[in-house]
């Protein structure tokens, strides 16, 4: 056939399906990682939320790059002791944070006035500014991923409510998690259906049209289903508050961990001045 | 009276889903809301469940008006949610917890039952629906029939006096359909009110003792299941039955009104 494009055959739909499949796998990984028998999984959710957030505050206040790097090192150690793979951290935290913060920080390399760095068109001061931004983003992303991968989502939400985070914020977080899964599932079904009806390959223009049309339909479907999820929650008495079947209880290990986090965060803030 | 609707109208995005509807549903009745797709059955169930509110008219539940203001008050909302359970057509929208056990425990937790009672009730309903083996599974990874059972369990655990069901057997295999119908027929030993929205006439006489037929959001007819099923003109007019064209072994091809019933 004259309009066959051998290199692009099924590529767009298949790649999209693979991407969606990976995204769903990631969501499943978070759920299974939280139930593993690791160091942080044994701690009360409140200790983890308070401890890891205090380290993020220390990183945000730090004026020394080595200190931020040390906190990232600490987060990696915690992750390894909590059965979280370095690959998961690299793929889901470091890469994303690097791309996002790197894009924002890149102009600072060239635009910040100062001493030229080894004759290159970037300055030492620019490098330092960009380094702070990227490392802070990496540290925050790593600490947050460690929290999410070691704590059931409902426990994170409950802990946030205990720390007086407003109901509306917690509800939005909780619903977002469910909506993302719904959206992935819907998108997966849409593209599978499309794949089952695609015999020939598509031209790049057709692929673009499919992507645009698919995005619009997906958004509409997800909005409709999201509304139904909220109604289904309301029908069972949901009024915004988070309740857990297990009582959050502070044991000796939790108090020790809380103390350790307090000391680490205090030392980090002091050393990073 | 369990529910009393007085000239209720509900519109969304320019479409009138429920149009000037008035009807009475007594306590302990088993009601079927019949109608083709888009007739307003699901919208009516949501109105009865206090999940959406009409632009005009009023709905009373046991003599108290069902409105946003009343449902914003815990003193009304808690007993109402405890009394009225709703099972959605698409079980996916009802499953949003990490495990089946958490899913079924969600309602009782929201209504702040004692935790020991929650554990006992969840275990009991999982056994009753024969899904105990699924209790640690992730709900959205289950099969369609399993999801439907979990969705049912998540509502039945509250032991509501009124059950609102939106197409309870939709997309189920024949065996699961019959199991769900048996469960609903036996459930509550006849002391509960069950309001089912459906366009499947096959099990009508099992699940209902009163039928309301809707067409374009309006009440077209009401009566006992046998009366409704006998009225072929009504069923054809409201698209509940259709002309079915088929070939006999003799080679003769003909068409006639077709009603979906078990074994037919």
Structure description:
The complex is a heterodimer of chains A (273) and B (264). Chain A has 273 residues and is mainly α. Chain A folds into two domains: 9-35 and 152-242, no CATH class; 37-151 and 248-273, no CATH class. In chain A, 74% of the residues lie in helices and 0% in strands. The longest helix of chain A has 32 residues, at 204-235. Helix content of chain B is 34%, strand content 28%. Chain B has one domain (3-258): Rossmann fold. Chain B has 264 residues and is an alpha/beta fold. The longest helix of chain B has 14 residues, at 115-128. At the A-B interface, helix 7 and helix 8 of A face helix 3, helix 4 and helix 5 of B.
What secondary-structure arrangement, pairings included, does this model have?
The complex is a heterodimer of chains A (273) and B (264).
Chain A: H1 11-33, H2 45-61, H3 65-81, H4 86-111, H5 124-150, H6 153-162, H7 167-196, H8 204-235, H9 252-271
Helix pairs in contact in A: 1-7, 2-5, 2-9, 3-5, 4-5, 6-7, 7-8
Chain B: E1 3-12, E2 15-25, E3 30-34, H1 41-48, E4 56-61, E5 64-65, H2 68-71, H3 74-83, E6 84-87, H4 100-110, H5 115-128, H6 144-156, E7 162-166, H7 174-186, E8 193-198, H8 204-207, E9 210-215, E10 218-223, H9 225-230, H10 232-237, E11 242-247, E12 253-258
Parallel strand pairs in B: 3-8, 3-9, 6-7, 7-8
Antiparallel strand pairs in B: 1-2, 1-4, 4-5, 9-10, 11-12
């Amino acid at each position: 056939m004259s309009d066959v494009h051998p290199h692009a055959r099924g590529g767009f739909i298949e790649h999209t399906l693979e991407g969606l499949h990976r995204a769903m796998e990631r969501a499943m990984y978070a759920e299974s990682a939280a139930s593993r028998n690791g160091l942080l999984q044994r701690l009360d959710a409140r200790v983890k939320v308070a401890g890891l957030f205090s380290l993020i505050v220390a990183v945000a206040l730090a004026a020394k790059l080595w200190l931020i790097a040390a906190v990232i090192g600490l987060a990696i150690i915690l992750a390894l002791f909590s059965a979280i793979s370095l690959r998961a951290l690299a793929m889901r935290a470091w890469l994303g944070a690097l791309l996002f913060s790197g894009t924002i920080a890149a102009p600072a390399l060239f635009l910040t006035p100062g001493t030229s760095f080894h004759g290159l068109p970037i300055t030492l001061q620019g490098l330092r500014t960009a380094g702070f931004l990227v490392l802070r983003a990496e540290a925050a992303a790593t600490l947050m991923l460690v929290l999410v991968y070691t704590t059931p989502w409902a426990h994170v939400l409950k802990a946030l409510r205990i720390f007086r985070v407003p109901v509306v914020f917690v509800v939005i977080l909780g619903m977002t998690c469910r909506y993302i899964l719904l959206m992935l599932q819907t998108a997966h079904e849409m593209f599978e259906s499309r794949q089952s009806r695609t015999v020939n390959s598509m031209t790049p223009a057709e692929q673009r049209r499919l992507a645009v049309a698919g995005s619009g339909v997906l958004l509409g479907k997800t909005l409709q289903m999201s509304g139904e999820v909220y109604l289904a929650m309301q029908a069972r008495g949901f009024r915004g508050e988070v309740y857990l079947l297990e009582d959050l209880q502070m044991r000796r290990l939790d108090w020790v961990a809380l103390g350790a986090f307090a000391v680490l965060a205090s030392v980090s803030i002091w050393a990073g001045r | 009276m369990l529910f009393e609707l007085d000239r209720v109208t509900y519109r969304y995005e320019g479409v009138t889903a429920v149009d000037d509807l008035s009807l009475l549903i007594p306590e302990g009745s088993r009601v079927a809301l019949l109608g083709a797709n888009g007739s307003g059955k699901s919208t009516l169930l949501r109105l009865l469940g206090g999940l959406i509110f009409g632009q005009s008219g009023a709905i009373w539940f046991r003599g108290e008006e069902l409105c946003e203001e009343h449902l914003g008050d815990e003193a009304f909302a808690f007993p109402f949610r405890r009394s009225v359970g709703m099972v959605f057509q698409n079980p996916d929208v009802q499953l949003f917890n990490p495990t089946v056990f958490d899913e079924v425990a969600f309602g009782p937790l929201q209504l702040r039952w004692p935790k020991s009672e929650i554990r006992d009730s969840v275990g009991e309903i999982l056994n009753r629906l024969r899904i105990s083996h699924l209790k640690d599974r992730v709900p959205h990874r289950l099969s369609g029939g399993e999801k439907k059972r979990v969705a049912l369990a998540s509502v039945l655990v509250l032991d509501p006096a009124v059950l609102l069901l939106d197409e309870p057997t939709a997309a189920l295999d024949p065996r699961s359909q019959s199991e769900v119908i048996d469960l609903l027929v036996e459930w509550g030993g006849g002391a509960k009110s069950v309001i089912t929205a459906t366009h499947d006439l096959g099990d009508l006489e099992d699940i209902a003792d009163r039928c309301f037929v809707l067409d374009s959001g309006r009440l077209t007819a009401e009566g006992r299941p046998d009366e409704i099923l006998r009225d072929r003109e009504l069923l054809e007019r409201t698209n509940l039955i259709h002309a079915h064209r088929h070939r006999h072994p003799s080679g003769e091809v003909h068409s006639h009104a077709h009603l979906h019933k078990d074994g037919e």
